[in-house]
Design goal:
The complex is a heteropentamer of chains A (about 325), B (about 675), C (about 260), D (about 130) and E (about 150).
Chain A lengths: L5 H13 L5 E6 L8 E5 L2 H7 E2 L11 H5 L6 E5 L1 H12 L8 E5 L8 H7 L3 E6 L3 E6 L3 E6 L6 H4 L11 E2 L13 H8 L2 H12 L7 H5 L25 H15 L8 H5 L7 H15 L24 H7 L5
Parallel strand pairs in A: 1-4, 4-5, 5-9
Antiparallel strand pairs in A: 1-2, 1-3, 6-7, 7-8
Chain C lengths: L1 E5 L2 H4 L3 H13 L3 E3 L22 H12 L4 E3 L2 H13 L3 H11 L15 E3 H9 L1 H7 L8 E4 L9 H4 L9 H8 L3 E3 L17 H17 L4 E4 L2 H9 L6 E3 H9 L6
Parallel strand pairs in C: 1-2, 1-3, 3-4, 5-6, 5-7, 7-8
Helix pairs in contact in C: 2-12, 3-4, 6-7, 7-9, 10-11
Chain E lengths: L2 H4 L10 E6 L3 H10 L8 E6 L7 H9 L4 E6 L10 H18 L7 E5 L5 H18 L8 H4 L1
Parallel strand pairs in E: 1-2, 1-3, 3-4
Chain lengths: ~325, ~675, ~260, ~130, ~150
């Protein structure tokens, strides 16, 4: 269950619209089903009263939307969950938008539910009722099913890295702490496999890729004016993968391009229609960076120097680094 | 579409002995874009170059591939050939089929096959080459010399001699530096002032040279040929252009107890002072730490006695901004502090002094008017012990000394010992040495004279402890050759303190982006072949800021640095390396990632208005490469996530074409 | 403030004054000295070899006791201080500490391995760095005005400088500042950091005599009335070898100035 | 010979001293307060260990004349630490069979009433296995 | 004599090695190997880049895609970069890239970074001999190869 309610957020937004602090509000709007919530822009209290929703399916990270939204006149209000604030800072570090044109209200988050997991519980979902530790799924075909809420969390929320807001103009509710999560456990499991097993694992995962670009389009680190994969002059232009190599190429290069900049928000995996655990690629880079060059959290502070644009004279050699990241050896 | 000519060189049998050059030529003739292909015995010969020139004319070639030796050998040659025949020199690519093929592969089949592949890669690259023109930047024809010691003076004079204006920035009230404090100079024993002060006067009278004394550089921006420098002129409370240097104020100032730094605190000066008689500029300076008028508002004596009306108690620091084409660093050295070497009792006895203090004690303009007298009681010392290598040649883990040899101490100690014995033959002089290092013209002869003619006692060993007892200094030392521990009752102990770079050097290096070693000496661009240039273009090194040096060496380096500066300022424009980074502004995200990895600070960001494809205008932050500063490493191209940054001559597409050609 | 106090063997026997005054002054200055129930002699000399473990155990146990009590360890005797501080530095070396900890694991009260965590203070360091000489100056009731006091450091407090970090080994000021704080005038003389020959006193009296005489002669030459020391062996040596000046422990001087000496 | 080489290795190992760092300035010997009592002096200890002349050092009375005052260690510009080397050689000497310099029986004769314990324990630690 | 015809024959299988060499150190080191006639297999094809930091990981993937069996990047020794810091960035980039390839199950022996100075002709030859042998033992690169490009 989320600690703040829709009403609190609407009241806050109405107050800030009313006193002229902001001109627009970024929020969530109900979709066709209760669980497919989409980001939307509101300018009046009335519109919000009608369509604004907030609850367990409001996972979308608004940070990236600010790149385009701040190009417009006026100031925009955005509600950011702790993990979103890291992306927000990272984008500021990269000068991707003007901080002055955004008003950030930090909101607490108790983890968002994973629609894939919910759908696996029952078919024909009408609504989902959150009772704190447990959720009840009201469905058309399987009736009411009650399950543990924790089991319904996606990996990124189960292994939440931080409940602390690293950027905000004002906070609603209590701020939390950075969490020592088990987010690298999955990566370690893969590292412990044999090369053949790893190859098979990724072959199986990445071969499902349909190159819909959803991961790229949602990624707050992927805000390039023009993506290299869309650019005929880049030498890697590739609109649709023709074979397993190109599937890999796309994901390796994408992960490399966001290495040191990825805040581990997990949006890539959330939006992937093929349910490829893309965050495991990014987390590998994060884990390696932490191990080779010392702990670094992208977005933790504005203006920090990312590990790939930094060095020390005694960094490990590549061969040594690969060896070190290996736990089976 | 390119029209490419391929020229395969036999290099006598160097290439042709292993590689079937005819097959290479034939095979490459079929490559895309190739309209002419041939092979010849020596492509680099005049005849070979004529083949290329003729082919360019006959086949209207737009690009050239030469399969020959390493581009490090003849790339320049063939570029000139191409330019002479009217095509852009950067349309030439070399396939290295000698060093990296025929010389390392014995087998003709695989050697020929590899030569063809290397040729194909070169052809693939040339297909994507574009004519490049080196960028040009104008050169500001003015030099800045930082530091007004003998190094800075000599550099400035030499540059001015060539007709270029020079500014000297000196942090002290006068130029002259350490050399002005010296008495005699080795190995000829001419008086330092006699040879230095005429040069100082030359500087003052040279209309090409401006002296900013009592000034410091506070900011350096820009790049070779175009530096923007801010100089802080510290308030001296005396109008420099009004003061006549008569010295009346310095005699009347009631504040008499200011330690005189020129004499290393061995006597006192007034709060308003002229450091020494031959100071340049010869104007007074008020020391704000001691002036009663400035501190309490009560006094004003100097103002009353100044007939010229030069005193200005309300003066403020002023900032001068100036443009320069070249900067010479001549910040010099200082002896290290003796605080941590109290086994020699430096802080416990006035009669334990450093060699520089000894210079002042023997200098006619010094605190004793050149009579060698003990600082403690003004008596003539009869036994003097010189200790060499105090703080030099220490272990790298030493917390008090330096790892390097300070280089000048052996010679000046020989000089001090010799002069003492010459003037005061009744004095016993001991020199404790670890090694006597005298490589230099007439240097060892000089040292030998000290021993043989002047009877200086050179003892191989070291002083362990100096104990002041009564009027004597009990010196406990070792004589390693005699195998003895010596106990000498000395009247004066002179420490040859190690020298270190001036403390102002480190922040200056940061401003200049010039590199330094761990000892804070400036690093030269190449230790052997470019000893007077810093790795930062347009920044040159003169004197002891680069490493310990004596006067002859300093003056040579000063002249060499001046020659380099003149060579730079002679040019109206600087042509750069055209293989530089450039940013496709339409794709640039403005994220500053490239800026962070650029070792030269060549990338800056600007906000620029753009017409977008949807016909709206948008202000975007975009990277701009300063082509005069970029050295073309390409680090930014990989850092850039959007691929907006690319490197001319080594573009991503070109390198990928080479990869493709090799893997085809 | 609470500190673990390590008196050492000599302070229990021949140097009772050094100990007694140290305790009384500490009480006056508001420092609580907690003496561990069991402590063993430090051995008097630090064996500067990295294969000697047994000879360092007593020091390590004292250091560990202080660590476990979460207090600094305080020493007064120069020799104890030298041994314990250097042992503490040695224990900051991981390999050496591992060996010692393996050895100590047989102790019945052994818990957490010791890795040089304790701060070791000499009484003088405590006065300078924790109490502060200015504070002492305020607490002085009998200023020792007019007394010319020669501080005798000897070798143990100062050297090796990189390990002891006590003061500048060639030009120390801590005892002089201490003397000034008590209202007396320090005498600076070159032999103050020379060795008295303590270690050879047992075997080679002549050698020790020569070294000691040099020290006392130098102090006399520089006009001292009195020599202060922190070391029982130095004091013994200087007195035995005919010092013309009284040699007292610095704690006695402190007790006198603070007015705790006459209170007896 | 092999025995001496082994001892040399042992001395270098337990002292942690690298005699090759010595630049032969002689400051240790200039510093040494026990110079007159010693047959071999600090710089000679360093040099002889470097060249492998261990035997004369092990037998030398000089080992027991060193005051361990560490003045040579303090003042050595090269960080060679001759005093530690002397200690290590002394340890190697007393660890040998019959190497003890002092036994409990020797003590009473050497004592006087005022002698602090410190002197006795130190002598045991330094001169006895 | 093309590669394609002999690739299935174990006795004559030769790997295809792409070597990126920085202009100032490693390319000069390769030239020195040539001057000294220090042999290494013709399988190695050198591409000259100004600095090892010019090597984009994309180039490496591209080489594998087009059928390279091994890719080696050579630069100046850390601290000796002609551009002062380029190879330090190379070291970080390639550490992460190689670790990622390894994570995807691609044989880690196929990629390598070596620092070869202009004076190390012998090291250049020895490095290439060793790398060729290592890659030859692994056999053809199958895990990262675009079959379309091989026709």
């Amino acid at each position: 269950m989320q600690a703040v309610t829709r009403e609190i957020l609407i009241n806050k937004a109405a107050e800030l619209l009313g006193n002229g602090t902001v001109d627009r509000v970024f929020g969530w709007k109900k979709g066709e089903f209760s669980y497919d919530v989409t980001p939307a822009l509101f300018t009046t209290r009335e519109a919000m009263d009608a369509d604004f929703v907030f609850g367990d399916f409001c996972g979308a990270n608004f940070s990236k939307y600010l790149v385009a939204e701040t190009r417009k006149e006026g100031k925009v209000l955005v509600f950011l969950k702790p993990c979103d604030t890291y992306s927000f800072n990272q984008l500021l570090t990269e000068h991707r938008f003007d901080r002055e044109k955004v008003y950030v209200v930090g909101i607490p988050c108790s983890g968002m539910l994973d629609t894939v997991k919910i759908k696996a519980v029952a078919e024909g979902i009408a609504s989902v009722e959150d009772n704190g530790d447990r959720v009840t799924v009201h469905s058309l075909f399987d009736g009411d099913v009650t399950v543990s809420r924790n089991d319904m969390l996606p990996d990124r929320c189960k292994n939440c890295k931080s409940k602390k807001h690293v950027a905000y103009d004002e906070l609603i509710g209590e701020d939390g702490e950075v969490i020592d999560s088990g987010r690298f456990d999955e990566v370690e499991k893969l590292e412990k496999m044999t090369p053949d097993e790893r190859f098979a694992f990724w072959q199986n995962e990445l071969s499902r890729c349909i190159r819909c670009n959803a991961c790229r389009d949602v990624c707050p680190a992927c805000t390039c004016e023009k993506c290299v994969f869309d650019n005929p002059d880049s030498g890697v232009e590739n609109k649709a993968a023709a074979n397993s190599f190109e599937e890999k190429m796309f994901h390796i290069i994408r992960a490399f391009h966001v290495a040191g900049r990825c805040t581990d928000c997990g949006e890539c995996s959330r939006v992937c229609p093929q349910h490829i655990p893309l965050h495991l690629l990014n987390r590998k880079f994060i884990k390696d960076i932490n191990e080779f060059y010392g702990d670094y959290q992208a977005g933790a502070e504005v203006g920090s120097r990312a590990p790939l644009v930094n060095y020390t004279a005694d960094d490990p050699e590549p061969a040594e680094a690969v060896e070190r990241s290996h736990h089976d050896a | 579409m390119q029209r490419i000519g391929v020229f395969v060189c036999h290099c006598g049998t160097n290439i042709a002995g292993t590689v079937d050059v005819a097959a290479v030529s034939e095979s490459l003739g079929k490559e895309q874009g190739v309209v002419f292909s041939t092979h010849y015995q020596y492509m680099c010969s005049q005849a070979g170059q004529d083949i290329i020139k003729n082919a360019i004319a006959e086949y209207k070639l737009t690009g050239i591939v030469v399969c020959s030796c390493s581009p490090r050998m003849h790339e320049t040659t063939f570029r000139k050939t191409a330019a002479a025949a009217g095509i852009n020199p950067y349309m030439v690519e070399i396939a290295n089929i000698r060093e990296q093929c025929s010389w390392v592969h014995k087998d003709t089949i695989s050697g020929t096959e590899k030569a063809i592949i290397l040729g194909k890669a070169a052809v693939a690259k040339v297909n994507l080459n574009a004519p490049l023109t080196p960028g040009e930047t104008p050169v500001t024809k003015r030099a800045l010399v930082i530091g007004g010691g003998i190094a800075g003076i000599q550099t400035a004079l030499d540059i001015a001699d060539a007709g270029f204006p020079v500014d000297i920035v000196e942090k002290k009230p006068t130029i002259g530096g350490k050399m002005a404090q010296l008495d005699k100079t080795f190995p000829t024993l001419d008086c330092a002032a006699c040879i230095l002060t005429p040069k100082m006067v030359d500087v003052a009278q040279n209309d090409k040279i401006r002296i900013f004394s009592y000034s410091e550089v506070t900011s350096v921006k820009g790049f070779v040929g175009n530096f923007d420098v801010t100089i802080k002129r510290k308030a001296r409370y005396v109008k420099e252009d009004v003061c006549t240097g008569c010295g009346a104020c310095t005699e009347k100032c009631p504040q008499k107890k200011v330690p005189n730094e020129f004499n290393l605190g061995m006597d006192n000066r007034r709060a308003i002072y002229i450091p020494f008689a031959q100071a340049v500029p010869k104007v007074a300076t008020i020391d704000p730490d001691y002036c009663m008028m400035l501190k309490t508002g009560k006094c004003g004596v100097c103002s009353k006695v100044c007939t010229a009306g030069a005193i200005d108690y309300k003066a403020k620091d002023e900032y001068v901004e100036e443009k320069y084409g070249a900067i010479v660093v001549a910040t010099g050295f200082n002896p290290i502090s003796m605080d941590k070497f109290d086994e020699f009792a430096y802080s416990q006895s006035k009669d334990v002094i450093t060699s520089l203090e000894f210079e002042r004690l023997t200098n006619a303009a010094g605190p004793t008017q050149g009579k060698l007298l003990r600082p403690s009681d003004g008596e003539h010392p009869h036994t003097i012990v010189f200790v060499q290598c105090v703080g030099s040649r220490c272990d790298s883990c030493s917390e008090k000394g330096k790892e390097y040899c300070s280089k000048i101490c052996c010679m000046y100690t020989a000089k001090h010992a010799m002069l003492t014995r010459d003037k005061y033959p009744d004095t016993d002089v001991y020199v404790f040495y670890i090694d006597v290092r005298t490589p230099g013209k007439n240097f060892d002869e000089f040292y030998r004279r000290a021993v043989e003619e002047y009877g200086v006692h050179y003892i191989k060993g070291m002083v362990g402890k100096v104990s002041p007892e009564g009027k004597k200094l009990m010196v406990q030392a070792s004589d390693l050759i005699a195998g003895k521990q010596l106990h000498i009752e000395a009247d004066l102990v002179v420490l040859a303190a190690a020298i270190e770079p001036d403390k102002s050097a480190r922040p200056l290096a940061t401003m200049l982006t010039a590199s330094m070693d761990t000892n804070d000496f400036f690093t030269e661009a190449h230790p052997k072949l470019r000893p007077v240039e810093s790795p930062t273009a347009g920044v040159f090194l003169s004197g002891a800021c680069q490493g310990p040096k004596d006067i002859p060496e300093t003056v040579s380096q000063a002249g060499a640095a001046a020659a380099k500066v003149i060579g730079l300022l002679c040019k109206d424009k600087l042509t750069g390396n055209p293989c530089v980074a450039h940013s496709d502004e339409m794709m640039c995200n403005g994220c500053s990632t490239c800026e962070k990895v650029c070792p030269y600070g060549a990338i800056t960001y600007v906000d620029k208005e753009f017409r977008m494809p949807d016909r709206t205008t948008r202000v975007r932050r975009v990277a701009q490469v300063n082509e005069a500063v970029c050295q073309g490493c390409g680090c930014c191209t990989v850092a850039c996530p959007s691929g907006a940054m690319d490197l001319k001559g080594f573009a991503g597409k070109q390198i990928m074409a080479e990869v493709d050609a090799i893997c085809r | 403030m609470k500190v673990t106090y390590y008196p050492g063997c000599t302070l229990r026997t021949k140097a009772k004054d050094l100990d007694r005054y140290a305790r009384e002054c500490a009480a006056k200055l508001g420092i609580e000295l907690c003496e561990p129930e069991t402590w063993q002699c430090c051995g008097g000399a630090f064996t500067a070899s990295n294969d000697e473990i047994a000879t360092k155990l007593s020091s390590v146990r004292a250091l560990k006791a202080a660590r476990d009590a979460d207090t600094p360890l305080l020493t007064v005797c120069s020799a104890c201080h030298n041994v314990i501080k250097r042992t503490n530095i040695a224990m900051q070396d991981t390999d050496f500490a591992a060996k010692v900890n393996t050895y100590m694991a047989q102790d019945k009260d052994f818990t957490t391995p010791y890795n040089g965590e304790t701060t070791v203070y000499h009484y003088l360091e405590l006065l300078r760095d924790v109490v502060g000489f200015d504070k002492i100056r305020e607490k002085v009731v009998n200023p020792l005005t007019g007394k010319k006091v020669a501080a005798y450091y000897g070798c143990l407090l100062l050297r090796p400088g990189k390990a002891m970090r006590f003061d500048d080994p060639e030009n120390p000021t801590i005892m002089e500042d201490f003397i000034r704080a008590l209202g007396a005038e320090p005498v600076i003389y070159p032999a103050r950091n020379e060795c008295c020959g303590g270690y050879v006193a047992l075997e080679d009296g002549a050698s020790a005599e020569k070294k000691s005489k040099k020290v006392t002669d130098s102090a006399v030459n520089h006009g001292a009335d009195l020599i202060v020391t922190a070391c029982p062996l130095c004091r013994y040596n200087l007195i035995k070898n005919g010092s013309k000046l009284p040699v007292v422990y610095f704690t006695e001087l402190l007790a006198e100035a603070l007015g705790v000496k006459e209170a007896e | 010979m092999a025995d001496m080489e082994r001892k040399r290795e042992q001395i270098l190992r337990i002292s942690g001293v690298n005699p090759r760092k010595c630049m032969r300035c002689g400051k240790c010997t200039a510093t040494c307060p026990s110079y007159d009592e010693m047959e071999y002096h600090p710089h000679e200890f360093v040099y002889m260990v470097e060249t492998g002349e261990i035997e004369p050092l092990l037998k030398s009375e000089s080992l027991y004349k060193c005051l361990s005052c560490m003045a040579c260690v303090e003042r050595c510009p090269r960080g060679v630490e001759p005093g530690k080397l002397v200690e290590a050689i002394r340890l190697v000497a007393v660890r040998e069979k019959g190497g003890d310099r002092i036994t409990a029986n020797d003590i009473p004769a050497l004592l006087d009433d005022e002698m602090p314990q410190q002197a006795i324990v130190t002598a045991f630690r330094k001169y006895q296995k | 004599m093309s590669m394609k015809n002999i690739e299935n024959n174990n006795e004559t299988y030769r790997p295809l090695i792409v070597a990126f060499c920085c202009n100032w150190c490693s390319y000069a080191g390769a030239d020195l190997a040539g001057n000294n006639r220090l042999a290494y297999p013709a399988d190695v094809k050198i591409i000259r880049v100004p600095c090892s930091c010019r090597v984009n990981p994309t180039f490496i993937l591209r080489a594998f895609q087009r059928g390279a069996d091994g890719v080696i990047i050579c630069g100046c020794h850390p601290g000796d970069c002609h551009y002062t810091s380029g190879n330090y960035y190379t070291r970080r980039r390639m550490s992460l890239m190689f670790s990622m390839l390894d994570y995807l199950g691609i044989e880690r022996e196929r990629t390598r970074v070596e620092w070869v100075s202009a004076a190390e002709g012998a090291k250049f030859a020895a490095t290439m001999n060793d790398f060729c042998e290592t890659v030859a033992k692994l056999g053809k690169n199958k895990r990262l190869e675009d079959l379309r490009c091989k026709q």
